[in-house]
Amino acid sequence: MELKGKTALVTGGTDGIGLEIARQMMAKGANVIVCGRRDDVLASARQERLEAIKADLSNAAGCAKLAAALAGRELDILINNAGMSGNFGPGEPLDLALTDQAIFLNLNAPLHLIGHLLPGLLQRPEASIVNVTSGLAIAPRAGGPVYCATKAGLRSFTQSLRHNLRDTKVHVIEALPPVVDTAMTRGRVNGKKMSAKECAAEIVDAIATNAPEANVGMVKLLRLVYSISPALARRIMIRF
Q1: Coil, strand, or helix at residue 178?
Q2: pLDDT digit string (tens) for the chain, length 240 residues
Q3: Residue 52's closest CA among 23, 92, 27?
Q4: How are strands ordered across the β-sheet holding 213-215?
Q5: Cα–Cα distance for residue pair 227/162, rounded to 1 Å
Q6: How does pLDDT run across 135-155, given as a tens digit for each residue?
Q7: At 20, is the secondary structure helix, strand, or coil?
Q8: DSSP code of 81?
Q9: Residue 134 and residue 174: Cα distance in Å, rounded?
């Protein structure tokens, strides 16, 4: 896909991986819209010449409101990147309210936005839907069961969606990042973190080349291990 002149929506595009994706796509000539909840980060995005819309995607009404704000716009690329951890572990109670919020933001929101925006995407000469999952969708870690479950669910949905849209001009891409140095992983000390800039570069390249998957950074190695021994890959990841 030629990115120049395309219009893209990047959810969670005001910081971390999303902001880097937005910057790099804009550098390639795309018109980029980002969304987020905080006024300060939205203002910072606007200073970088990004179009920024305030949106809360942790509920159905917020997803519908964002779709309404885009009504009549010719959108070519939808990048479902917004997410949250919702972690809990041994000795830590399961916060059900936080769990529900994480499940909606990580899994339901991409489905809602696809439902709202797919009819328009199907009318474009060429379009892409990019769902950002995680290497943890393949091999979960013990410290993030809720996050891993939502990403595994989104991975499954993405595979089915790709099959269902195989005869259309809408490319369906799954991006599987490793542990990336963002606000979400600030408390993680195990292992090396990939920079958000490097991660975004691989995702943007996948969009430009219409690759069905972007196995980013160390996820390439994880996929190799998984192809040889799924049990070994899970044993490696579950420890972290």
Answers
A1: coil
A2: 999 999 999 999 999 999 999 999 999 999 999 999 999 999 999 999 999 999 999 999 999 999 999 999 999 999 999 999 876 666 677 888 999 999 999 999 999 999 999 999 999 999 999 999 999 898 888 778 899 999 999 999 999 999 999 999 999 999 999 888 777 766 665 557 889 999 999 999 999 999 999 998 777 766 666 677 767 655 655 544
A3: 23
A4: 51-54, 31-36, 7-11, 77-80, 127-132, 170-176, 213-215
A5: 21
A6: 989 888 877 889 999 999 999
A7: helix
A8: -
A9: 9
Q: How many CB atoms lie within 10 A of CB 79?
A: 30
Which residue in this structure is represented by tokens 């929101």? Answer: 109
Burial code (b: 16+ CB inside 10 Å, e: under 16) for 204-221 equals bebbeeebebbbbbbbee
- To 5 degrees, how large is the angle CA 76–CA 61–CA 125? 10
* CA dist list (Å): 206 to 6, 29, 99, 175, 199: 15, 16, 31, 8, 11
The residues, any chain, with a CB within 8 Å of residue 221's CB and separated by 6 or more, are none
Active site residues per annotation: 147
Span 29-60, pLDDT tens digits: 999 999 999 999 999 999 999 999 999 999 99
| Beta strand segments in the chain, E | 7-11, 31-36, 51-54, 77-80, 127-132, 170-176, 213-215
What is the distance, to the nearest Å, from the Cα of residue 57 to the centroid of all Cα atoms in its chain?
Answer: 13
* Interatomic CA distance for residues 86 and 151, integer angstroms: 12
Residue type, 216: V
The pLDDT, as a whole number, for residue 162 is: 98
d(CA 12, CA 20): 11
